[in-house]
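Weekly sync, protein design subgroup
Attendees: M.S., D.O., the rotation student, P.L. (late)

Item 1: inverse folding check
M.S. brought a backbone from last month's batch and wanted to see whether the design step gives back something sensible before we order anything. D.O. pointed out we never logged the input encoding, so this time it goes straight into the notes. Structure tokens as presented (236 positions):
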């Protein structure tokens, strides 16, 4: 199955320019062909193409399916973008494929990338959602300062941050994280969080954790964290 993405398909009955190009120019769909479209909000539509156009393909909806939430937990992954944009895109792609509800871009003291274009990451997320046949599009937030995110994290029951230094007591994520509920995990920059950031996180009920006995790259830690939470919930 190949599915297309259109968040407002019920209102517009039209695919976006990018999706139209993929549908009609790349896959060569014509009038009368039937396709699947998701709105990223838990619905999949069985549609028929009534106007094949590389920039605004029009459809009629023949059937609508509603899917329940994919997971019994809600996961927010807050990560400091890597200096190498390809590595960041890889991490985002895999996180969406495995299962994440929200990705937050963190600006930390040691961040090597202070600005991150969200447009490209959104395209990666859409592609990963479509490829994995999910009907839920995760949320992506613009870059936010570490201290602001930590203070706005609220009363979420499970809040963790990966920390490399042994100078601060740490626990293992796979032992601390429990199934269900809301989970927030922060991944720091390639130079790790500074002591002041660690103190602020702990003050706001974040638990410092490790992701095993090896030091991981930022993007690897992000994928590990998402995978670990997923497995913990599957085995519960």
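Designed sequence read out in the meeting:
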């Amino acid at each position: 199955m190949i599915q297309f993405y259109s968040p407002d398909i019920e209102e517009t009955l039209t695919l976006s320019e990018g999706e139209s190009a993929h549908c009609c120019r790349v896959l060569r769909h014509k009038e009368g062909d039937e396709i699947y479209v998701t709105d990223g909000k838990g619905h999949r539509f069985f549609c028929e193409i009534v106007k094949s156009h590389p920039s605004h393909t029009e459809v009629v909806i023949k059937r609508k399916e509603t899917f329940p939430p994919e997971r019994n937990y809600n996961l927010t992954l807050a990560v400091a973008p890597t200096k190498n944009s390809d590595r960041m895109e890889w991490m985002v792609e895999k996180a969406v494929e495995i299962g994440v509800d929200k990705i937050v871009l963190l600006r930390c003291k040691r961040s090597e990338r202070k600005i991150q274009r969200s447009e490209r990451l959104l395209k990666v997320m859409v592609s990963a959602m479509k490829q994995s046949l999910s009907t839920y599009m995760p949320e992506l937030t613009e870059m936010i300062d570490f201290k602001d995110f930590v203070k706005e994290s609220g009363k979420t029951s499970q809040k963790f941050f990966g920390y490399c230094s042994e100078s601060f007591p740490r626990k293992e994520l796979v032992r601390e994280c429990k199934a269900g509920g809301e989970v927030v995990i922060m991944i720091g920059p390639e130079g790790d969080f500074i002591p002041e950031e660690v103190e602020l996180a702990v003050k706001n009920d974040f638990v410092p954790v490790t992701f095993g006995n090896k030091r991981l790259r930022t993007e690897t830690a992000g994928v590990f964290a998402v995978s670990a939470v997923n497995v913990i919930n599957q085995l519960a």
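Discussion: The mean pLDDT is 94. The radius of gyration is 20 Å.
Action: P.L. to compare against the previous round before Friday.
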